[in-house]
Amino acid sequence: MSARRIGERIAYYRSVCRPQMTQRRLSDTAGVALGTIRKIERGERVPRAATLDAIADALGVDPSELLSDRDAARTRVRDALPSLSASIAAYDLPDDGPVRPLPALHEAVEAAEGWRLAARYTQIAQTLPDLLAELLRGYNAEPHGRGDRSALVVRAARSADAVAYKFGARDLSARMIELMRWAVPETGDPLLVSSVAYVRTETFFAARAHAAGLRALEAAIDSSPASHDVAAAAARGALHMRAAVIAGRAAHADAAELHLSEARELANQVKEGIYLGTAFGPDSVRIHEVSVAVSLGDDHVGRALDVAREWKPPKSLPAERRSGFYIEMARAQLWAGHPDAAFEALKAAREIAPQHTREHPWVRQDASTLRRLKRADAEDLTHFAEWCAAT
């Protein structure tokens, strides 16, 4: 990897994305010597992994965004997956070790949730093995009153699952979801139960068992609390959003529209926001309208294009959700015969959440298709296809 390119990217994020951050402030925030920061930005030194992580955290980006060699970031995540698996292998018989006080654990879990929503998977992969092991030690050491500790296990496992699922470790993802289902009853929180049902849908997507996934979500909706307050409305609405998408994948257009309609009605009761780790609100429902249209395909694709002409996801939405919108739009544009617009959508997704975009199977498929369709327009598209490992 090029020291010069890494230095340029750090200087770019510091001066453009964090315009008030001087080199000295970056030094103080990251805990890295000022002289080292200067040498790195001048391309005179390649930062060690720990230094790069500290700088990325101070800049509020994933370390992968600072690397000129993105394969290094992918390798770091994949290398961490065995540790993530080992951290939950003996979930009911964890090893001995220290356990921080609950406020510190809450803070650590909240940080991981923030990384998940921002698609900062490298930081999750590096941090969650130790955090999950610590949370499970604390849970097993507390035979009574485990509600808080159970909730922390569920929330941390969801962040870990995001990495496993996005990076294709589907068996590990399924184990993380089973860990969530094991821990959630002791929380006594029906809304968190709904959240776990929402995440569980990944196993049905992975198995292409869309009809079964729709049944599971509809059962979860039936057992979810009535939407008498904002939190309950958001939990129920998120389930309807998810049900609409998997109904679309199952080619059940009527069911997809019914669930979208329910989600819209509930979204009108709440402000767009993060509820128990899930983004929900009018903007999220609109993104899911696009997803449903793309899932149904054929005559429904025009609906996705209509949304894109009128609206773009606001920057206040989580990066992972915004990049997902552009990935879906790329597919819609490609199917509609607009390859240039499809490529622009893929590049927008990459700009928002590089790791999420790079690991998405649709991105690789669509980049391969674009490459075949546009042989004469080689260089930029070729670089993109190589970046996402498209064949």
Task: Summarize the SSE layout with pairings.
Layout: H1 3-17, H2 23-30, H3 34-41, H4 49-59, H5 70-89, H6 102-117, H7 121-140, H8 147-166, H9 170-183, H10 190-207, H11 210-223, H12 230-249, H13 253-267, E1 273-275, E2 278-280, H14 282-296, H15 301-310, H16 319-335, H17 339-352, H18 354-359, H19 361-373, H20 379-387
Antiparallel strand pairs: 1-2
Helix pairs in contact: 2-3, 2-4, 5-7, 5-9, 6-7, 6-8, 7-8, 8-9, 8-10, 9-10, 10-11, 10-12, 11-12, 12-13, 12-14, 13-14, 14-15, 14-16, 15-16, 16-17, 16-19, 17-19, 19-20
Short summary of the structure?
72% of the residues lie in helices and 2% in strands.
Question: Explain this structure to me?
Answer:
By secondary structure, this protein is an all-alpha fold. The protein has four domains: 1-68, lambda repressor-like DNA-binding domains (434 Repressor (Amino-terminal Domain), Orthogonal Bundle), CATH 1.10.260; 70-183; 189-311, no CATH class; 319-391, no CATH class. It is 72% helix and 2% strand. It has a two-stranded antiparallel sheet. The radius of gyration is 21 Å and the shape is globular.
Strand neighbour order, sheet with most strands: 1-2
Distance between the termini: 23 Å
Structural category: mainly alpha
Strand percentage lies at under 5%
Biggest pleated-sheet summary: 2 strands, antiparallel
Radius of gyration from CA coordinates: 21 Å
Number of strands: 2
One letter per element, helices H and strands E, the order comes to: HHHHHHHHHHHHHEEHHHHHHH
Number of helices: 20
Please state the average pLDDT score: 91
